[in-house]
Write a structure and sequence with these properties.
Number of strands: 13
Helix content: 25-40%
Strand content: 15-25%
CATH topology: Rossmann fold
Order of helices and strands: EHEEHEHHEHEEHEEEHEEHEH
CATH architecture: 3-Layer(aba) Sandwich
Low-confidence stretches: none
Oligomer: single chain
Bound molecules: NADP nicotinamide-adenine-dinucleotide phosphate
Number of domains: 1
Number of helices: 9
Radius of gyration: 18 Å
CATH superfamily: NAD(P)-binding Rossmann-like Domain
Largest sheet: 7 strands, parallel
Length: 268
């Protein structure tokens, strides 16, 4: 049986990936700063040591420094973690799936095909683009994902977690009417990513996106409608001058997810 090294399991997507690996009864090891196999992506030595110890056949890299504001404050660290570290993992020679993001695009020309030119608006997007290039150079598989949502018992992360938190804490929320994404349930993402890593020999750069393109505001309204809820806490908002916020980074997907947005939102 193949053994998978999963990074980022303490994160939002990583929690769904770990659950998917468990569901399939695959052999895996979790690597990270707070994981059974110690690995700090900012420290090349620890990456090399973890790779040696892991006895892994496959790498699923879902770790990232994922907060655009923090990446902007320390672009060099963002590049180390989201860019250079990816090159070190992919350079191991093991089959690897690198998770990337719709935020490598400027948002001026969406919806985007995988062949469209990347033009990040901020350091986070630039560091993730550096990671894509490093992964591709070493022959890895790179999958760009859109805005993710889903329900985790222990966390309010993800696009729907933020909505739930606002309702539960009675906190007002402005939702952009002019920012378009193709939202995807993290559980659907995890199922397809594990398929692609384990059961396929696909390489190169691809898009995996949800079935519909909609604004943050529309996403919120659909969430309410699916759950039979109403609220006066949310108001339509605008990106304003749009600095650092991409207008339309919706992705044209290489795969169909297999269920409707409403069906996925019912589990969020
Ligand atoms: N969430 C979304 O909507 C979305 C959309 C598109 C693409 N993505 C992509 O999906 C992937 C996962 O994103 P996410 O939202 O799940 O992120 P997240 O919730 O912020 O989790 C990030 C993970 O990375 C780990 N990590 C951060 N710095 C590290 C370091 N120096 N060494 C080792 N591990 C480190 C964190 O572990 P600790 O902090 O515990 O060490 C955590 O497990 C990323 O590649 C992201 O670009 C996410």
């Amino acid at each position: 049986m193949v053994r998978v090294l999963l990074t980022g399991a303490t994160g939002f997507l990583g929690a769904f990936l770990e659950a998917e690996l468990r569901r399939r009864e695959l052999d895996f090891v979790l690597a990270g700063r707070n994981a059974e196999l110690e690995m700090d992506l900012a420290a090349p030595d620890s990456i090399a040591a973890a790779l040696r110890e892991s006895r892994a056949d496959l790498i699923l890299n879902a770790a990232a420094w994922s907060t655009p504001g923090e990446c902007a404050r320390d672009p060099a660290a963002a590049k180390r973690i989201n860019g250079d570290a990816v090159g070190l993992l992919a350079g191991s020679g093991l089959r690897m799936l690198q998770v990337s993001t719709d935020l490598v695009f400027s948002g001026l020309e969406g919806p985007y095909l995988p062949t469209a030119e990347a033009a990040p608006l901020h350091e986070y997007g630039a560091s993730k683009r550096a990671g894509e290039l490093a992964a591709l150079e070493s022959g890895a598989l790179v999958i760009r994902l859109p805005l993710l949502f889903g329900r985790l018992s222990h966390s309010s992360r993800g696009a729907s977690g933020m909505l739930r938190e606002s309702l539960e804490e009675r906190r007002p929320l402005g939702l952009f009417v002019d920012e378009y994404r193709t939202p995807l349930h993290a559980g659907d993402a995890a199922r397809i990513l594990v398929d692609l890593l384990v059961d396929d020999d696909l390489l190169g750069l691809h898009h995996l996106a949800g079935p519909e393109r909609l604004s943050r505001w529309e996403f919120g309204q659909r969430f309410l409608s699916v759950h039979g809820l109403q609220t006066d806490l949310w108001s339509p908002a605008s990106r304003g001058d749009g600095v650092g916020r991409a207008k339309d980074v919706s992705l044209i997907s290489d795969w169909r997810v297999g269920r409707s947005l409403d069906a996925a939102l019912a589990e969020a």
